[in-house]
Amino acid sequence: MMGYRRFLIEAIRAQKFDKLIVFTSQAAIVLADLLCGEYRGRFIFDYRDITYEFKLPGYKRKLLEVMGASSCTMFASPGFIEFLALGEDRFKGKVCLAHNSQNAWTSFALPGKRKGAPIRLNYWGIVRQVSFIKSLCDVFGSDERFDLTFYGEGRIEDLVAHCRERGYSNVRFAGRYNYREDIEGMVATTDIVNCLYENDRATCPTLAVKLYDALNYKLPILVSKESYLAKYLHGMTFGHAVSLADANLPDCVYSWYSSLDELSMSSDFDEFRRRIESDDERFCARLLDFSKG
Questions:
Q1: In whole numbers, what is the pLDDT of the chain averaged over residues?
Q2: Residues 86, 150: one domain?
């Protein structure tokens, strides 16, 4: 690691860059002394995910030093801003949202409900939190009103065996996919986006990419109670926060989905898109100012 750090610093100094944009907290930690010294006020730090903040002593403190020395720190979720408690004066004017979206909305019409057919509750992404997914399958796996599909790689074998042992015929694990090539096919067979996760410390503050897919393709989305995503979607008809501990959860989800009003959903989708677009406009303006200054 020290050799890599030395290589990076020497390469940056050799090129005599006026400014830097630093991606990931790992890179920020490796370059912390350089950023807080020679490049103070002359770099942007892009913070995407929680990594070692809970694992390595001093990691979070060092990241805060880097953020304080930056021209601006970009965050993928307001939940990270709350997690890092960036309310101090040294961070004033140095925080900006940079959503994990391309902000190129499709012209998809609301898909509408399929009468008499099972509700297709679909997940795509890395299949992790195996114990949580097993519990989710136990809740919905014997209910003929729902079909569950999980797209993505992970510990699929354990989950397939779990569902086979319990006779869940309405749960499917589709395996690997190519996002660019397959996303439209996946959303075409989706009624509700499954964005349910166990609220561990790294996951809870995030805004999952599936949120932007739901916005883009105008699909209702299930999220976990007590997550930042649930807070972010509060008041939006297309988002519904639940817990696996909720009594009669399948009945609640079925009732919520059945009662969704397309006109209200369409209005909320438009409002939420405008919120994202407004954040993105501020992000682009900040990036432009940085490049010119």
A1: 93
A2: no
Residue 55 within any structural domain of the chain = yes
Domain that holds residue 181: 119-268
User: Do 41 and 160 lie in a common domain?
Assistant: no
Q: Domain for residue 258, yes or no?
A: yes
pLDDT at position 4: 84
Torsion of CA 223, 224, 225, 231, to 10 degrees: -50
Residue 157 has pLDDT above 80, yes or no: yes
Please provide residue 68's backbone torsions phi and psi, each rounded to the nearest 5 degrees. Answer: -65, -25
Contact 125, 152 (CB under 8 A): yes
What is the domain count for the chain? 2
pLDDT at 125: 96
Same domain? For 88 and 161 the reply is no
Q: How far apart are CA 230 and CA 199, in angstroms?
A: 11
Residues 145 and 216 in one domain: yes
pLDDT at 114: 79
Q: What is the pLDDT of residues 160-176, one digit of tens each?
A: 999 999 999 999 999 99
Instruction: State the Cα–Cα distance between residues 221 and 223, nearest whole angstrom.
Output: 6
Q: What is the H or E stretch that residue 96 is in? A: strand 95-97
Helices (DSSP H) in 102-167: which residue ranges? 130-140, 156-166
